[in-house]
Amino acid sequence: MATVMEFTSPTAEFPLGTVFENLPGVTVELERLIPHETLIIPYFWVRGSETEDIEAEFEPHAGVTGIRVVDSVEDEYLMRAEWKQEYFGVLSALAKANVVVLTGIGTRDEWRFEVRGESQEAIAEFREYCQENDIPIEITAVHAMLPIQGEGYELTETQREALVLAHERGYFDTPREASLEEIAADLGITQQSLSSRLRRGHRRLIGATLVSSS
């Protein structure tokens, strides 16, 4: 059965975290992670920056060979980095393990990740890789993915919880009866984490119900 693990990691363990030294108020969200030959290529959003020259805010890191902006929407920047696979860290662990990154959100305090393994063994292998290579992670939750009403698609427990609570509280009503901040407070998470869970939950539901698989 597919298993989801949530964990945190120190900001310094993630090369992209150097931006917090220069822009402590920004949030970084990992969009996708692509292993490519000798490199790992992460795409990530940087939000909350008032500077247009966002590339200059990332100081050189031993593992990073290049970084650039590929798109921008108002104060949000989609960036692409290239990172050496031989540099041990959270990114190399995620790229080498048989797990899928569901969410990865970083602030100046820490990184929070949610990953999916197709089995408990895959999650165990990821944990062992981190232990063997002294990659510090703190596991906060492990749970199975839930099928929704017997259909052939799945949401994580956290995505389902966020979507259901947002619906019950009237977040999707017009006008809205609850704000993102209020719902995030009820769940005990940040607004950024809630926004990510809602967006990814929507993506799964739309992909399974409205988009043809043919």
Short description:
With 214 residues, the chain is of the alpha+beta class. The chain is built from six helices and ten strands.
Secondary structure blueprint with pairings:
Layout: E1 3-9, H1 19-22, E2 27-36, E3 39-47, E4 64-73, E5 76-84, H2 90-96, E6 99-106, E7 111-117, H3 120-132, E8 138-144, E9 146-147, E10 154-155, H4 157-168, H5 180-187, H6 191-209
Antiparallel strand pairs: 1-7, 1-8, 2-3, 2-6, 3-5, 4-5, 6-7, 9-10
Helix pairs in contact: 4-6, 5-6
Word description of this protein:
It is a single chain. This protein folds into two domains: 3-144, no CATH class; 146-209, Arc Repressor Mutant, subunit A (Orthogonal Bundle). It is globular and about 50 Å long. By secondary structure, the chain is an alpha+beta fold. The chain has six helices and ten strands, in the order E-H-E-E-E-E-H-E-E-H-E-E-E-H-H-H. Helix 4 (157-168) packs across helix 6 (191-209). The relative contact order is 0.17. 29% of the residues lie in helices and 33% in strands. The strands form two sheets. Strands 4-5-3-2-6-7-1-8 form an eight-stranded antiparallel beta sheet. It has a two-stranded antiparallel ribbon with strand order 9-10.
Number of strands: 10
Strand content: 25-35%
Largest sheet: 8 strands, antiparallel
Low-confidence stretches: none
Count of discrete alpha- or pi-helical segments spanning 4 or more residues: 6
The overall pLDDT, averaged over residues, is 81
Structural class, judged by helices and strands?
Answer: alpha+beta
The total tally of domains equals 2
Approximate helicity band: 25-40%
SSE string: EHEEEEHEEHEEEHHH
User: Shape, please?
Assistant: globular
| N/C terminus separation | 25 Å
Instruction: Tell me the radius of gyration.
Output: 18 Å
